[in-house]
Amino acid sequence: MTKVVIIGGVAGGATAAARLRRLREDLEIIILEKGSHISFANCGLPYYVGNTIKDEEQLELMTPEEFFDMFNVEVRVNHEALSINKEDKVILVKNHLINKTYQLDYDFLILSPGASPIIPPFAGINEVPVFTLRTIPDSINIRNYIERNGVKHTTIIGGGFIGLEMAENLRNKGIKVKIIEMLD
After folding, report:
1. Cys-Cys with 53: which of 48, 100, 137, 152 at CB 3.0–4.6 Å?
2. Same structural domain for residues 22 and 89?
3. One domain, residues 105 and 149
4. Short-list 164, 153, 156, 142, CA closest to 43
5. How far apart are alpha carbons 105 and 86 in whole angstroms?
6. Are the C-beta atoms of residues 114 and 12 closer than 8 Å to each other?
7. Residue 120 included in any domain
8. 47-93, pLDDT tens digit by residue?
């Protein structure tokens, strides 16, 4: 059986897996996701921070078990691809659940690891609490910090959709918000 391994299980990786399954029933498809969630509503993260979305489970569009039941795709969360040997078609994978590495062979490989947040090298940035917002755990950390520390004002770096939605939700919580955006 032809094996397809997809590195990254959020939007792009999950979509690729679902589409592949619709095109080919005979493939073995495995998704490796470094984080603990797949296919989640990343546009909903600011609304969880703002408490419009009350329960973090509402952010999860699908669990690995549901993905398997619906698409016959094996999803391995908390599994990080450490290296790829493209000549031998083997990936070195770390299972963070048991802290062990193993090798996984493949016939075809799809890379959809997503982006990493950028923290600008501003002077003094390490003197204040800094958060990034890309994952469900990120939104939980931000929401918990706000609730524990009575945050009164914040600065959001980035005026894209997520930054603006975050500003709206923080403002609705009574927090004073400033947005810094590099573009006009």
Report:
1. 48
2. yes
3. no
4. 164
5. 10
6. yes
7. no
8. 999 999 999 888 888 899 999 999 999 999 999 999 999 999 999 99
